[in-house]
Each structure stands twice: as C-alpha cells, then as structure tokens.
Specification:
The chain is α+β, with helices and mostly antiparallel strands and about 120 residues long. It has 2 domains: about 5-65, Helix Hairpins; about 75-115, Roll (SH3 type barrels), CATH 2.30.30. The protein contains 3 helices and 5 strands, in the order αααβββββ. The chain has helices at about 5-15, 25-45, 50-65; strands at about 75-80, 85-95, 95-100, 110, 115. A hairpin with a 5-residue loop joins strand 1 and strand 2. Helix 2 packs antiparallel against helix 3 (about 50-65). The chain starts with a helix and ends with a strand.
C-alpha cells in the first residue's frame, strides 16, 4: 500500500515526463507555476545558468498554451522579447515562429510566446 507521499512522488514523476505537447491546459498552467517557483529558488541561490534554462522552459510551456490562438500571422512583423529590431515571420512550425530581423538574411526561430505585435 502506498502512502500519500510516495503516490504523489510517483504522479509527479509521471507528470514531469510528459511532453508539453501532451499536457492539457491545466497541466501546462501547473507546470509554469512550478517552474516559476523553482526559478525564484535558483535566483535566491545565485544559480543564473539554471535561471536561464528555467526561463526558456517557461517560454516553451507558455507557447504551448497559446499555440491555438492564431495570434501570430505569416508575413506580419513582431517585436521579440529581448531584441530591438522588427522580426518578420515567414513560417510557423508548432510553437516556433521562423523569420528574419530587419536588414538580416539569416532565418531564426523563436517560441511564439516571445513575440508581440509591433506597434503601428
């Protein structure tokens, strides 16, 4: 017979092995909350590399939350969080927006959560 703790640990392990693409909206929200709490702990510990990894995981999970919103349109220009230049989306693949920055030819990809409409 399992006690409550070992059952929770088993469920947490199974849940953490799910891909973001397999998670429900509620599971993604819980995962984002868990990652944010872990990120605060890592900040307090001064583990900045871990903080950066957790930020990336949060952005991916949030991208899966918004992947069906149709907010990102091919051919449109967006602001990418952390970048000053305009980014024009040329294609979408899953939760990644592919495109180029102004005056660049190299194609890049960003999680859709990092994109916001460029002010007109």
């Amino acid at each position: 017979m399992e006690d409550g703790f070992s059952k929770k640990a088993r469920l947490d392990k199974e849940w953490s092995e799910l891909l973001y693409s397999q998670m429900s909206r509620d599971e993604l929200l819980r995962e984002v909350d868990r990652l944010r709490k872990e990120m605060e702990i890592r900040k307090d510990q001064g583990l900045w590399n871990a903080v950066a990894v957790l930020e990336q995981k949060i952005n991916m999970a949030l991208s899966y939350l918004h992947k069906d919103d149709n907010a990102i349109q091919i051919g449109q220009t967006y602001r990418v969080k952390g970048y000053p230049d305009r980014f024009r989306v040329s294609r979408l693949r899953g939760v990644m927006a592919w495109g180029t920055f102004e005056n660049e030819t190299e194609e890049r990809a960003f999680p859709i959560n990092l994109l916001s409409p460029w002010p007109r």
